[in-house]
Specification:
CATH topology: tt1808, chain A
Shape: globular
Largest sheet: 6 strands, mixed
Number of domains: 1
Strand order of the largest sheet: 3-6-7-8-9-10
Radius of gyration: 18 Å
Number of strands: 12
Strand content: 25-35%
Structural class: alpha+beta
Distance between the termini: 59 Å
Number of helices: 3
Order of helices and strands: HEEHEEEEEHEEEEE
CATH superfamily: tt1808, chain A
CATH class: Alpha Beta
Helix content: 10-25%
CATH architecture: Alpha-Beta Complex
Length: 186
């Protein structure tokens, strides 16, 4: 017979797993965990318009690569982080099932900054996506009106950066995408 929750010693509960379980089973809005802080996801329409513009431009290539594009959960095991990117591209076989993926299972992650948490995308997510191996991270910074593409991830951050490129300048996504993202409507 298993122990009742009241009989379990406090040190037997993994705080990371408990926190991540709680947000996954939370009734209501979607939330992410940023360095242990639960943040609700409430992007405005101007934010969504940019993400939608990126999705439209990537759509044909994503299908040609047999991938899925969306805003699914990304777990960062061993940390108190659970991210929901604005756009992520993942191979179709990995998108089957209900579990979260890891950043290194993506081909591209896109974050569009918001006034309320732009520094999270600029600093925390950039560092963590690199640490967890996301191969390409496109930061669309609405405050600075610029895009920056980060690549070649490592434990100390991304080692290659293109940008910041002002809105209106195209962003060249390398292979496997090999396409130019038009930023003039951002």
């Amino acid at each position: 017979m298993s122990a009742l929750p009241s009989e379990l010693p406090y040190n037997s509960v993994d705080p990371e797993q408990a926190l991540k379980y709680a947000i996954q089973h939370h009734a209501g809005e979607r939330v992410q965990i940023i360095e242990g802080v639960i943040e609700p996801m409430a992007p405005g329409w101007d934010h969504e318009a940019i993400a939608s513009h990126v999705r439209r431009q990537l759509n044909d290539k994503v299908h040609a690569l047999d991938c899925v594009m969306g805003a699914g959960d990304l777990d960062l095991p061993g940390s108190s982080n659970w991210f929901i990117p604005d756009v992520a591209v993942v191979p179709t076989p990995l998108a089957k099932g209900s579990g979260a993926l890891l950043p290194d299972q993506t081909l591209l992650v896109v974050e569009v900054t918001s006034d309320s948490n732009g520094d999270t995308d600029r600093v925390v997510k950039r560092r963590r996506y690199a640490e967890y191996g996301a191969p390409l991270y496109l930061l669309i910074d609405r405050r600075d009106r610029a895009c920056t593409l980060f690549s070649e991830p490592g434990p100390l951050g991304y080692t290659r950066t293109v940008g910041p490129l002002p809105f209106g300048e195209p962003v060249e996504l390398p292979e496997p995408f090999g396409l130019r993202v038009d930023t003039s409507d951002f």
